[in-house]
Amino acid sequence: MLTRNVLLFARLLRQAGLTVSTDQQLVLVEALAHVDLRERRQVKATIRSVLATGRDESLVIDRLFDAFAGMAPEARDPLDLGRLLRKVARRRPQRLALEPAGDEDPTHETDAIDPLVRASAVERLRHTDFAELSDDERRAVVRWLLERPLRLRPRRTRRWRAERGGPRVDLRGTLRQALRRGGEPIEIARRRRRTKTRPLVALCDISGSMELYARVLLPFLYALRASAEQVEVFAFGTRLTRLTRALERRDPDAALAEAARRIVDWGGGTRIGESLRRFNRRWGPQVLRRGAVVLVLSDAWDRGDADLLARETARLARTCSRLIWLNPLLGSDGYAPTASGIQAVLPHCSDFLPVHNLASLDSLARVLRHLDP
Questions:
Q1: Cα(365)–Cα(53) distance, integer angstroms
Q2: Do residues 224 and 231 make contact, with C-beta atoms less than 8 angstroms apart?
Q3: Closest Cα to residue 236, out of 318, 296, 304?
Q4: What pLDDT was estimated at residue 272?
Q5: Is the dihedral of CA 158, 163, 165, 169 positive or negative?
Q6: Using CA atoms, how far apart are residues 299 and 205, in angstroms rounded to an integer?
Q7: How far is CA 364 from CA 113, 295, 323, 355, in A?
Q8: What span, in angstroms and rounded, lies between the C-alpha atoms of 74 and 76?
Q9: What does the pLDDT read at residue 232?
Q10: Residues 16/120, Cβ–Cβ less than 8 Å
Q11: pLDDT of 120-178, one tens digit each?
Q12: What is the three-class DSSP state of 320?
């Protein structure tokens, strides 16, 4: 019965727009086996700890759990989940406390969106091109990205650290402990390799042809910074601008506002080759270290010197562990990489991926999570 209810509730959450994997369902079943199922508060807290990744998801889980728990066991049928979801969504929205009460504008309803409705709306927009979003839809997508941290898999480094139960014997540690005990090796010290997320460097095109995409991609890069220990972010159009310091702020709205203030060539022309040359000479030796992965988010529409672009892309590929070129045009039907700019960079890229909607960002997240250790 417990497993069936977990599977049905996970299906209900997915219909509401949340992502619930099979592994999470297995972990949840195991966790609930150690909880008194008669204590609804304990059950709800356990579900949140396993499935929720942000405040909005916690609110969605709470509301759906209350409705799901109120159903009779024999009425919990997959066919009834859709009706239950619509019934819950019709209830009065709960206001999210994103700003202090004194600063609220009663005529502004952006933050008053019910988290359940927002999740379902964003799910419907998963395959919509970022350039086709309305202003309200773009704000909903941006808020969704900021509240869903991306989890990257750490890689093993060459360094070791002492750890009880580690796979290798720490001979020096064992001898040091023996000296403190009169030379008797009473306890065997052990060690394990240190783990660390791979450094990421992102260069985002903010020229006129990329403007609508950059308004979503920059918040995504801000959210990406929360998942890795070292993430460097640059913007380029006719010049190169480092945004790492601006995006270090904890408040995402303040961070993105400061980033926008620093970009003086927003929506202008494109000089990709010159921007990459500036990066390779000024910032490359400083940030491309310890197996860094470089993300270039650009449609590669460049009227500059194609030979310069090819040379600087080749140099960038040689100095990083992996060069991933993300082109929003790749998601368009009938697109072919025939322009001189993209032809100049393609031979030097490890990956050539689309980045035009939420589904493409999910694919990128999977690639980053499974980078070679």
A1: 15
A2: yes
A3: 296
A4: 94
A5: positive
A6: 8
A7: 28, 10, 13, 8
A8: 6
A9: 93
A10: yes
A11: 566 678 888 998 888 888 888 888 888 776 666 666 667 788 887 788 888 888 888 88
A12: coil
- Angle, CA of 216, 221 and 226, to the nearest 5°: 130
pLDDT band, very low/low/confident/very high, at 109 (cuts 50, 70, 90): very low
Do 201 and 288 contact (CB within 8 A), yes or no? yes
Cα separation, 241 vs 238, in Å, equals 10
The pTM (predicted TM-score) of the whole model is 0.64
φ, ψ dihedrals at 121, nearest 5°: -65, -45
Measured between alpha carbons, how far is 247 from 146 in angstroms, rounded to an integer? 12
Write out pLDDT tens, residues 221-250: 998 887 666 889 999 999 999 999 999 888
Place of tokens 């403190």: 180
Can you spell out the DSSP letters for 250-278? SSHHHHHHHHHHH-SSTTS---HHHHHHH
Q: What tens digit of pLDDT does each residue of 246-267 get? A: 998 888 889 899 999 999 888 8
Q: Which amino acid is at 12?
A: L
3-state secondary structure of 201: strand
Rounded distance, CA 230 to CA 240, Å?
19
Phi, psi of 240 (to 5 degrees): -105, 130
Q: What are the phi and psi torsion angles at 296 (to 5°)?
A: -110, 115
Calculate the average pLDDT of the chain.
Answer: 80
Q: Which of 277, 280, 274, 203 is nearest to 238 (CA)?
A: 274
Q: What is the pLDDT of residue 82?
A: 56
Alpha-carbon distance 209 to 194, whole Å?
43
Specify the pLDDT at position 95: 30
- How would residue 78 be classed by pLDDT, with cut points 50, 70 and 90? low
**How far apart are alpha carbons 2 and 36 in whole angstroms?**
12
Residue 125: half-sphere exposure toward Cβ, Cα within 13 Å: 24
| Phi, psi of 114, rounded to the nearest 5 degrees | -65, 135
